[in-house]
Write the structure tokens for this entry.
Amino acid sequence: MKSVDNIALICDKMVLPEFIKFDACMISDENKMLRKGGGKDGFDNACIYIACRLKNIPRTFADFANTGNCRKLDVTKKYNKIMQNNYAYKVDVQNPLIFVDQLVSRCNVSAKTIKDTRDAFLNKSDLCSMVGQNPMIRAGAILYFYAHENNDPITQRDMAYASDLAEVSIRNNYKKYKHIIHRKMFSKEDTLDTEIYGMKKPVDSVYARF
């Protein structure tokens, strides 16, 4: 199947707009030498993924792997090759808040959990950036953290299924964010005690409780 026809088929399956289909075809034509050999489906999916990223449409590699009948690894490899071959594509870092909206629609979480998660990304962006290797993992782990804090009836397996990630990814990054938040809270308590009582504590005392 030709690249143009395959791209059109995948875009129709994913209900993507016409301008994404057009941009993906242009990207495919500019990098057609990379389509030769194995992984042609991965190449076509990678072109659509880049077009989505350029237009800030939230999609993940897993979305394309599930729809395009190829492995996630194939899409990732072709994406890296295209980006290395053409430096003109300026792909911005995706905002995890976009993926939070997707996860909320798939999970049974309270309004307080949604508010706490949004506030975390808006007011604690420096802490949130320490969690996860991609925006979806970050969104899933931090949303699960606040769902657990607010006693929402959701498990790590539910969150992993909603975010299309491995359960171990949610668990590890949830623990990491929990450790960061608690360490920050203890650090503020020690600073407050020092200001009130005039005590000078060594830096290591902040982490003495762990």
Remarks:
- The chain is about 70% helix and 0% strand.
- The chain has two domains: 3-85, 96-207.
